[in-house]
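Re: weekly structure request thread

Next one in the queue (342 aa):
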Amino acid sequence: MNRIVSAALIGLLGCVTGAALVWSAAGFQPRVLVAAARPAVTAAPATAKAPAATALLPDAGWPPNAPTPEQVMYAQPDLLEREIAKLKPRTPGKVNLYAIVFAGDGSENVFRNEAEYFDRLFSRRFDASGHVLVLDNNPASLTARPLATWTNLEDALDAVASKMDATKDILVVYITTHGSEDHTLLVDMDPLPLDQIGADDLADILAEHPFKYKLVVVNACYSGGFIPSLEGPDTMVITAARSDRSSFGCGEQSRLTWFGHAFLVDALNRTDNFRSAFGLASAQVRSWEARDGYPASDPQLSAGAGIDRQLAAWRKAFEPGPAVPFAPAAAAPIPVAAGAAK
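Done, posted below.
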């Protein structure tokens, strides 16, 4: 697997104001797209601009009163172990569901909102209390959640595998971040030098673990490019866009991405069938894009017969809880580099 180290100077990111970020041989480049308005249901009140960085050090915009970047990295094993200790054993006699949420981009609260809401939704509605592990890059989560990093993802998968019956239970991996045209996920908590994760990398990471049944949701631009590497007879892959399209709704003004809102809040609060939820979410996203004149993101789903059967067995083993209302996680100021466009 080839790890690509992120540039610590990434400032303004794609989807926010119509600039999609593209990795290339020359680095991470902005590419102008049509600006993406959000649906009214996700509108957030205007907030004051975060203070601009005033020093030349790469961590000049690090949150005040937070541990230093070195302290954050040093604390990761203990922080991850603390969260792993909260995982509950599987319930015998039925198909269990365990989930790992990966919020990769620390520059926007929208991804943290989505990760925290996923935890509440699956814990309360889908019989997964104590079966969800959240990895999150965000200034507000530096001492509360393990970072969303390649290493922590591998260790989280090891921990979840130790709790599951890997031949019967279902692993859910939900990833929310920015994606590039070459199908690489942005993993960033500036100024930490974090490795990026490509489509083949994610497939290799999962293949190193014993899970038979997997549901992988990649909520990012160009995420359809992850399907060829991940698909299989016992795997369902859901993506927010096809391989050559952007998705919409990220940015400081957003509370959830469009696809995250449509899939998690609107669809999965109506059904426990992931295929049905995908259909509902895709139709809703299409209607928002058509209404506002934006190019269709065209969400994708690929699933084998094995995972469909196992998801059906999982649904028979419990009654879904009530709908879980969405509320954003407590906000934290996001530092913005001096001179960055908004």
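Residues 6-58, 333-342 have pLDDT under 50 and may be disordered. The first strand starts at residue 4 and ends at 5.
Next request, please.
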